[in-house]
Structure formats: structure tokens, C-alpha cells
Amino acid sequence: MTNSFVELEDADCIFIIGSNTTVAHPLVATRIYRAKAKGAKIIVIDPREIDTAKQADLWLQIRPGTDCALALGLLHVIIRENRYDKDFVAKWTVGFDKLVEHVRDYTPQKVAAVTWVPAETVTALARMYAAHKPASISVGVALEHCSNGIQTMRAIAALMAVCGNLEISGGNLTHPGLKLKNLGLPERVEKMTPLGAEFPLFTENRKHTAGTRLTDAILTQKPYPIKAVLAIGGNPLVNWPNSNKVKKAFDKLDFLLVQDLFMTDTARLADIFLPAASDQETEDLRNTYFDHNGLSLIAKSNRVIPPVGHSMEDWKIWCEIGRRMGYAEYFPWQTADELNAELLEPAPFSLEDLKKQPGGIIYRQREFQSYLRDGFKTPSKKVEIYSEKMDRLGYDPLPTFHEPVESPVSRPDLSQKYPFVLMTGARTSNYTHSRFRQLPSLRKLCPDPLVEINPKTARRLHIGPGQTVTLESPHGRIKAAAHLTEAVHPDVVVIMSGWSRDSGANANCLTNDMSVDPISGFPEFRALLCNIAAAKD
User: Fold this and answer.
1) pLDDT at 64 over 50
2) Using CB atoms within 10 A of its CB, is residue 47 exposed (0-12), middle (13-18) or buried (19+)?
3) What pLDDT shows up at residue 119?
4) What's the rounded Cα separation, in Å, for the pair 299 and 285?
5) CA-to-CA distance for 271 and 313, rounded, in angstroms?
6) At what angle do helices 108-115 and 67-80 cross, to 10 degrees?
7) pTM attached to this predicted model
8) Rounded CA gap, 339 and 320, in Å?
9) Straight-line distance from the first to the last Cα atom of the chain, in angstroms, rounded to the nearest whole number
């Protein structure tokens, strides 16, 4: 389930969790504030007092990585107080009876001890969400960047279902995308053991595997030797977890090719760097479905200028590489139009139709309660609070909370040396991941890597504003400038990701590539352990 940002203004309650909306989606934030002006209740769950938290009716400063426990506590209150949608639950869910038993022990008091959120606040949030309908839960990627991410998302989906907020205007909707032709080679791929095979449910549903397993595969040569990597539009040396290990793995390769717009850390390590074309120099299909705006529209973008210098469009680089490796039969396209026309073959319209509609074509009208006709996209056609498929694969069939792999609770031994909870990945509107720091106009706005520290903590550690500090985890050490702010909990420190290794402040030198969600394989970026001290030099 996702959000229809178009209809957020119809919500009576907007529940934001794991998303710094004003930075990540500023236009969405505008809609949220419009809804608030119309009387909607705003709830924000975030370890930091972000801008939306300052506007919220209720802000919960949660311990990073414990959102699943909170969701189960909310379900406990809603079920105990009979505040759920009995009709929807009876007709359209599977496993509600098991959920009732499952959440019985997640009392507000127990949840408070786990999450650092006061018990009375847990109860108030549950009552607020259940009482205001339609309600929309706006979920950010931060929840998936935890070792319990998928179960957290399942618990939140259960909240949506139990309160009857699925597939209604102002609630949470599904947005089926436009089916395009699969240009892959399944008959060849099926003969290989893919990286990330230990995450079968994720691979089956997402049609790709967990890329961060590549690091170990290069170093161990299992399940097979990997001698070369093509890094396309990414900067794994900075953005993948455990950067020191990534560097060690890439140094072991026989060949590294990087295709990018910028000379990134990864590009500087490459044997060959191929300059990619920007979106102003390409002919692409643009599907607004992927913007989660609820508008099922696809459009063809037109090239503004020819590719500059020796840069080439992505598809053309891939085709040229494929042909020169002897696979010309699999790369027959000579123009972007030929490629896009083939991609659109399953669609009810052609590329020529799309060209005649410069504003794009709406391929599916927005529809509410489509489950009344088609059911939900699950084996039972209902919302599977209890999943038999997950049970068969050895996963918890009910949404279940597990402590982060490295936390004060799961690793009290580590927390003696690393007493602070570290959250990486904080965003700024000036940069996107590791991009744009090379632009002087943007760098001027945020020139230095900063670590957010509560002033009480800073005083105790004799750290002053702007002072260089050392952050150390079990996996590495970096330095950054102290930014003192009441927005973070005294036991939490927060650092932005995306700074290069050369800066000495690459947050992923502190992260652990082996602390992953057992279902998705996504690494834990948001709930780690660290120590912090004033730098000695």
C-alpha cells in the first residue's frame, strides 16, 4: 500500500512515519499543511523534531528501529477498546483472530519501555488515528532501512486494514503500474543462482535481488566468482553499507566500469569511466506512478539538447557493450524510439499514440475500493495479516517486532563501548544522496558534514558548537562537525549520508552490511550503535 498524495487533502488524519516530508517531498508537505488548515489531525513519528513534527498535533520521538513495536502497541489499544472497523475486518482480512492474541502483550506500558514513547502518548495516538477517518499513513523509506523493516511495514499495513482505511479517498491506496515488456533473459537467469537467493520472498515479489550481497560475493567468490562490475548511475563506495568493506571488494575486481554524470568516489576507482547523458539529453518514458502521486499517467520526454561531448544515453551504452561482447541478437535497438516502442507492446496504446499526447496518457482512472471487484493482490484476495506463505518460508507469519541487530537491548555488551544510538541518512534539500556537493552554489548552503547532537549530551562530553568530533562504531570511524540541536534525543546522534570518503565523514564507514532485514536483505542504516567524543587532533 502507498499514499495517493493527490487526495491527502481529503484525509481527516495524516500519520507520517519514517519520512522527512518537507525535505523529501516538499510538494506533498504543502498538501499536508493544507489538510491541517482544513482541520486534519497531523501525527509525526520520528526520532528528530523535523519540520512536520513542529506542526503536528502529536509528535512521538521514538527510539530508532522500534517502529514495529509501536504499531503493535497501537493495534493493542485499538482492538482492546473496540475501535476497529468490524465490517472490513470480517470480510476482507485473514488472521485477525491470531493478531488479537499476538498484540495482547503489547500494552502501552511495554511499548513505552521499548520505544521511549510515554504510555499515555501511545494510547492517545491509537485513539486519534482510530477516531478520524479517512486517515492516511505516509510511510518513508527510513522504515525499510532497518533490520526489522518488512515486519514494520506489515504492522503498519495491518493498522490501515484494521481501521478500514484501505482503498478510500483520503486513506491508503494501491496504484497498479503500467505493464511494460520485460526485456530480460529469464531463460538464462533461471540457470544461475542469483545473489540474494537467501531472500526468496523479496526476490519473487520485487523481481530483483538484494544488491548489497555483491560485496561478500566478490570477497568470498560464492556462490560463484565475480571478476567485473558495471556500476551504472550509483556510487556504492559511498552509499552502500560498510564502505571500508566495499572498497576492499572493489579493489579485488579484475575490472570496474562506471557509467555516471559525475566523477564520484566509485568512478575514480574505475578502470573505465563512461560519461552518461543527463535527462535533458535523452528520450525516455516517464511514468508518474513511480512518484506515488496517485495519477496513473505515462508520458514521453523529449530531448532538449543532443548529448554533450562523448556522453551517451544509458540504453545506447548498454547496447554497445552487449554487441561488442558478442550478444548483438539481444540488443537489436538502434534508436530510442525502437526501444520505447517495444517496451510499450503490452500497453493499450503505442509509442505513436504517446507522441500525439505531449501531456501524457492516463492509462488507468483512479478507483476506490477496487477490491470489491478484484479482491486484494494476495493468494487469499484479502489482506493477509497472517501470511501462510511467509510461514512456509520460515518467516514470522504475523507482524513481529525484533530488536535492531545492534542496539542497547540486543547487544548490551557493545553498548558499553558504544552507548549512543546512531541514525544515518538524514536529508537536506541541498543534496540527493551523494550528489551535488561538487556544485559551489549548493555546497555554500551546506559546506561541511555535520553530526546532530543534543546540547545536554554535548555539555557532558565537553563538545562545543561546530567542534570536530569523532564518531566510532564497531565497523569504523569518521569525523564531522558538531551541530547542537534539541531536535534529537540525548541518547541519539544523527549524521547525514552521502559525504565522500575523502571528506573523512562517510557515514557508511560506520554501518554494518551484515545487519540486514531477513526478508528483504535491506541494510540497517537507521538504528546502529556508536560512540562520540571531541576529536583529539
Assistant:
1) yes
2) buried
3) 98
4) 6
5) 20
6) 170
7) 0.94
8) 14
9) 49
